Every structure is written in C-alpha cells, then in structure tokens.
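Dear colleagues,

As part of the handover before I leave the project, I'm documenting each prediction I ran so the next person doesn't have to rerun anything. This entry is a single chain, and its sequence is reproduced below.
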Amino acid sequence: MAKAHRSSLRFEVAIMSRLMVGGVDFGQPLIRPMCSAGRGNAMAEKVAIIGAGLAGAVCARALADAGRRVCVFEKSGGTGGRLSTRRSASGEFDHGAQYLTARGAAMGALLARLADAGAIASWTPDGKDRPGDWHVGLPGMSGAVKPLLAGLDVRLRTPVETLRLAADAGVEVVTGDGARHGFDRVIVTAPSPQAHALTGALDARFDALGGIVYAPCWAAMVAFDRPLPDLPDLWRGADDAPLALIARNGSKPGRTGETFVIHAGGAWSARNLERPAGPVLEEMLAALSAHAKGVPAPVHAAAHRWRHARVDAPLGTPFIESACGRIAVCGDGMLGGRAEAAVDSADALVAHIVAGGGQAVPARP
C-alpha cells in the first residue's frame, strides 16, 4: 500500500459547463463543500475507485473531502495513468501527456490549486504552437496527481479482476490476489475496454462503452550526452508517421539532462502496435536522425506502448451509472481526447453522487 501522508489540498469546485446526464442538469453552478453532510449514511459510505490516473484521483479527492471513505486500486506500481514519468540515470521522461491546459472552470480550478500546492509549473517551450498557458507536473507529470491522492488509501500493484453485486446491496471487489473487498459504491476510471470487462456483465448500460474509440501511441524516451541545438523544445509531425511529436523533456521545469520524448502518430502506432519494442524503437530513432542531421548515438533509449493513448471518438456523456446506482464509469473516454475531459467527467460524476444521485445504500462497517 502506498504510504499515506496528510494533504493540505482540498477542493471547492464550481461546475459551470452544461452537462446533462440522465435528465439531470449539471449546468447550474454547484459548489461542493469541503465536507458535506450528505444524505442518510453518505458520510460513512465506502467507495472503491479503480484507477489512479487523473479521473480517479479527482474522484478520490473530491469524495474524500465530501466525507466518503475512499479506497483507490491501481494495477501498476505508480499513480498518474497517462500523466506518467519514467526516470533513468540520464534524466527524466514524461512519456505520456506532455502538458496540461484549461478551457473550463473545473480544470482551471484544479490547476490553480495544484499550482498553489507546488505540484505544477508553467512551461513555455521553444516551438510552442498552441494558445493558452501550458502546465507540467513537478518534478514530473505524475507529480500533478500526487497531492490529490495524499493521505488516501491507495493500493498500488493491485489489479481488480472482478466486480460482483452483493446481496446486501453492496459491491464486492475481487483483486488479483483473490482477496474480496466490500464497498457501497464502485467507480471505474480505466480505459473503456478494461472498464467494460469489469462492468459489462452487470448492466447492459455499460455496453455503450464499446462505442469509444482510442488511438494507440508508441513513445520513445531518448537521452544524449551533449546538447542538440538544432532541435526545438517542441515539434509536431504527421499522425501517420513515426515522428508525430518531439518534446525536449529537459526544457521543462524541474527536469535534468538532454532528454527527449518522441511520440509516433496514432495511425502509425496502430499499424505497428504488435511489433516488438526493439524494432519500433530503431525505426523511430532512424526517423529522428533523418529529421535532424548530426544526431549522435543516444546514451539512453527505450520505448513504451500506450494502447489507449488518445480518445478519437468519445461517448458524449460525462459518465455511465448502473441502474442500481452502485457502479459508475467515468474518464476521458466519456467526453474527449484531452486531460481536461477526464477532469470534467470525474467532476460531473462526483457532483451527481454528492447531490444524492444513485441508489441510497446502507453504509458499510
């Protein structure tokens, strides 16, 4: 279990966007209290959250601040999901999402609070090609979710294998080690294929998850022992090419080394998805050498395959909830291909729960 420590980061988020879910209008400004009396036994409600990425972290923090007892299950060894950072002797690599931006109120409020907590900083790279302020996690992108999960029960390397609706109106969570855990409510924030594998047999509503389309991404992490002045901090290419994005990771605040993250395009990654990492990395490095002359041999090079990197076709609704109200799915697949979509989806689901949505269930001991 991850070591718990106290967090000073608490949320009062105003939801300003118009979100319609099951006839409920979330368009009116809603201030979620830092501690809510809830309805009935809501204060003692036990909630399991599957996935410690951005959506899961936002759900966990907001529900904990509203008085729920939260437990986060994460199958990997770290938190952040696609806000991921890998470290090496040659420097750090944000091999997933490169930066965060805000267009709406919920994301803006989140970024402001993360900045106040010292968890993010501004990044203005040479080659910045899109408007707005860009923010990066500290000391890596995964640092952006750590304040959200601080002090909570986060269980790393604990995959969830099965969900079962219990006879006592709860939900049984069965983890990879065979252990069984009882909860009043479960929120699944994993990519839709994984979410449907857990929920599809429980309620036909979750079959809609099959309509979400993702693009994969091969990511290369490359470090050099000397500066490469001919490369900008950021460059974008075509989606059907091995070089769709080149980012100098070392140009971000808090990073070290002449390190680069290269993302292959979604179409190219899809065609090469099942190839071994070694040949894929060689092809991406060859493309880099052809793109920028005089690139020396790297002192570090590795590749990572993201199967669900970008949402190309979202569902179009903020979340799906089972008819009994005990299980819900949220995440960026609901609303779009930006990190902000994950926040908006989680925000809408939490507002629904705190407002009394879903079936009233007895609190667990």
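The chain has two domains: 20-81+145-212+314-354, 86-100+216-312. The helical segments are 54-65, 105-116, 146-149, 192-199, 266-271, 277-291, 332-335, 339-354.

All the best with the project,
I.
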